[in-house]
Write a structure and sequence with these properties.
Elements (H helix, E strand, L loop, with lengths): L5 H9 L1 H19 L3 H26 L8 E5 L2 E5 L4 E5 L3 E7 L6 E6 L5 E4 L8 H6 L6 H8 L7 E5 L12
Antiparallel strand pairs: 1-2, 2-3, 4-5, 4-7, 5-6
């Protein structure tokens, strides 16, 4: 039995990093202002760390799309795998050439391209799709704010979010 409405629990879960960062910031400010000596400096350090958590949490919360979309995403040892009800596949991060956001699908889809393979379309609302934020953010030259702004679009054609330059060497991410 739960005393919290499912909608409220979902909102709290979506913004969890931001809430933790706010708590750390508040504790840091309180500690910095109510203590002396080295504890004051530790308080200011906690305040800075909390602010960083708040900023990162806001980006992550903006990336998360509520809803239970089709399929699920798994990220393991440099590979993104999508298991969908009708399609599926895997893309090696080292072979990833382009990421597009296609808002025309219902729901919108990430389209991951690699040379010699069929494009992999992953609904933004798939189970585990929020883990793609870390993978996408680690790509060289990824513009995170541009990506987040494009996720709000609901019209228009697919847009390229990221493309690997010819001289870029791949970087494996383990999750």
């Amino acid at each position: 039995m739960s005393f919290v409405r499912p909608e409220a629990a979902s909102a709290l879960y979506r913004w969890r990093e931001t809430l933790v960062g706010g708590s750390v910031t508040a504790f840091g400010v309180w500690s910095a202002l109510s203590t002396h000596g080295i504890m004051t400096w530790i308080g200011w350090g906690l305040t800075m760390a909390g602010l960083v958590l708040v900023a990162a949490g806001i980006q992550r919360a903006r990336f998360r799309i509520s809803g239970q979309g089709p399929g699920m995403v798994r990220i393991t040892e440099g590979q993104i795998t999508y298991f969908g009800p009708l399609t599926g596949g895997a893309v090696a991060l080292s072979e990833l050439r382009q990421i597009q956001l296609d808002p025309t699908g219902k729901p919108a889809h990430w389209v991951l391209s690699q040379a010699g393979q069929t494009d992999l379309a992953i609904p933004l609302t798939s189970d585990g799709a929020d883990g793609l934020f870390d993978v996408f953010a680690s790509l060289p030259g990824m513009r995170t704010e541009f990506m987040l702004a494009q996720m709000k679009r609901s019209d228009g054609a697919a847009i390229v979010i990221w493309e690997r330059a010819q001289h870029q060497t791949p970087k494996l991410v383990s999750r």
